Amino acid sequence: MPGIEKRPIRGGVRYVVRVRDPERGKYTSATFATEPEAERFVSDVEQRDVSWALAEYRRAKDEADELTLNEWAEIHFSALTEPSGATVRRYRNIYAETWKPALGHLRLSQIGRVQVAQALNAVPGSDKTVLNKWAVLTHMFKMAAQDGKITRSPTIGVKPGRRTEHETEEHRYLTHAEFWAVVEATPEYWRPLVITLAGTGLRWGELAALTVGDVDTEHRLLRITKAEKQDPDNPSKTIIGPTKTKKSRRSVSLPVEVLDVLEPLTEGRRRNERLFLPPNGGPLRHRTFYRDIWLKKSVGNSGIRQPYPRLHDLRHSHVAWLLAIGVPGGLATIQARLGHEKITTTIDTYGHLEPDVQRAAGEAAGLVFAARPQLA
User: Fold this and answer.
1) Do 123 and 224 fall within a single domain?
2) Does a structural domain hold residue 177?
3) Phi then psi for 6, rounded to 5 degrees?
4) Structural domain count, the chain
5) Which residues touch 86 (CB under 8 Å, ≥6 apart)?
6) Residue 142 belongs to what domain range?
């Protein structure tokens, strides 16, 4: 019967059992944190055999050394290099709020497709919200597999289902007449903002981050180098950070009409001042502007038909207007102007609007019928 040796260590003791390993032909030690664990090992040696007891000991040791998802999350987020610090903090918050409660305590090998799917089904929110949160988890497991922590990501084969209806998310393309009716109904102070959104296709966050120095009146350009976004540490506040993607950093040529409304906003002001500010100062809030100006006045008093357009529909309308007149370069020009990272995004979003493409497709399909043989 093997004996149990009690060995003092800093801060406590360890219990060691020495046995001869039949497979290796030499003595080896099994170390335990408590005496009952050591006694169970001795009992396994006596009642089964040394090989079985050692195999179970090593299996349990390997399992104890394996990372939990919480431990991997800390390693994963601290090793991200490309996103900004604010973005990484947002990822951490998403993990802590969404995935940690259901999966964080489990070891990586314990998490399978079923556990992941159950956690995903419990995530509340719109399709877009769920997809954003899902992307954080899938990337965590992708990197774990790439680093050899797991053999295969348990997110493979799992896909968020469609939960919400998207009628309210459909694009609303304003006609020229509708747009000018909206401008006319907009309080004069805010007209430059509405005209700039429609005349450039900027995202709201890009517009909110504009400073006086971003307006290049000499070359008739608007330089997009930053964007306003939600502060991941305080959702009630916003911060200025990098643009959505690398290609979102761009210079947008300005129509004369847009430049005419922007020039007065730059006169006598410091280059680092925000270009658009509320009349009484303070930060420019999307929610406040959308509620108090856009819905109640700009759209509400315009007389245009419902459904009412969202602010982001000015970006969509901008594209529709350009494609309708056959802007040189077509969707490739649109991609650069909007700051899309990939041309596929532009095609998927606006390809149906390009008249020349649709006309050519129709003519190509017509050739099939023109060559129809005489049927017997």
Assistant:
1) no
2) yes
3) -95, 120
4) 3
5) 229, 231, 232, 239, 241
6) 69-146
Alpha carbon distance 201, 261 (integer Å)? 16
Q: What is the pLDDT of residues 26-83, one digit of tens each?
A: 999 998 888 998 999 999 999 999 999 888 888 777 666 678 999 999 999 999 987 7
Tokens matching residue 195: 């005209």
4-9 sheet: strands from edge to edge = 4-9, 12-21, 26-32
| CB-count burial class (<10 Å; 0-12, 13-18, 19+) for 276 | middle
Return d(Cα 198, Cα 137) in angstroms, integer: 36
Instruction: Annotate 42-87 with DSSP letters as a single string.
Output: HHHHHHS-HHHHHHHHHHHHHHHHSPBHHHHHHHHHHT--SS-HHH
Q: What pTM was computed for the model?
A: 0.59
Q: What is the pLDDT of residues 103-134, one digit of tens each?
A: 999 989 889 999 999 999 999 888 888 988 99
- Looking up tokens 């159950």 gives 118
Edge-to-edge strands of the sheet including 215-216? 215-216, 221-224, 250-253
C-alpha distance from residue 183 to each of 15, 20, 59 (Å): 80, 88, 71
Cβ-proximal residues to 203 (8 Å cutoff; 6+ apart), any chain: 227, 244, 312, 315, 339
Of 146, 181, 204, the position where a domain reaches its end is 146
